[in-house]
Amino acid sequence: MYCTKCGAMNDDNAWKCTQCGEVIQRTPQPQHVTRVEIPNYLVQAILVTIFCCMPFGIPGIVFAAQVNGKIASGDIDGAMESSRKAKMWCWISFGVGLAVVIIYGFIYVGLILSAVRQGVLQ
């Protein structure tokens, strides 16, 4: 392999020119760098905490906040586990909030029907 700077002949496996020190062969770079996309569910966790059920939404926020830090430190398994837990707590918070709204609706309808039967509402 010839050096592009000085033209000296070098070994095919050489990465620097023996005469001028120019880098003649770079280490091969991977063609496809796979980046793991792990959702953090932070937006969902914040929304269900505000609108559904705060006590169950807070753990969702905590686990969602851990995902990006674990990815950055190279702990992919830990990031996936935190993502799974964040998603689980989001669904729990949403389910509890929905159940409360449905129960409240039944109580409200029951009170209205009771008032109509007693003649308070016509």
Describe the structure.
- With 122 residues, this protein is mainly α.
- The chain folds into two domains: 1-27; 42-118.
- It is 59% helix and 0% strand.
- It contains three helices and no strands.
- Helix 1 runs antiparallel to helix 2, helix 1 (42-51) runs parallel beside helix 3 and helix 2 (54-72) runs antiparallel to helix 3 (76-118).
- The protein is rod-shaped and about 105 Å long.
- The model has no long low-confidence stretch (mean pLDDT 87).
Assembly state:
single chain
Straight-line distance between termini:
98 Å
Can you count the helices? 3
- Assign the structural class, choosing from mainly alpha, mainly beta, alpha/beta, alpha+beta, or little secondary structure: mainly alpha
What's the helix-strand series? HHH
Number of strands: 0
Mean pLDDT: 87
What is the number of domains?
2
* Helicity level: 55-70%
Low-confidence stretches: none
- What is Rg? 31 Å
Q: Please summarize the sheet with the most strands.
A: none
Strand percentage: under 5%
Shape: rod-shaped
The gist of it:
With 122 residues, the chain is mostly helical. Helices cover 59% and strands 0% of the residues.
List the SSEs and their pairings.
Blueprint: H1 42-51, H2 54-72, H3 76-118
Helix pairs in contact: 1-2, 1-3, 2-3
What characteristics describe this protein?
single chain, 122 residues, mainly alpha, 3 helices
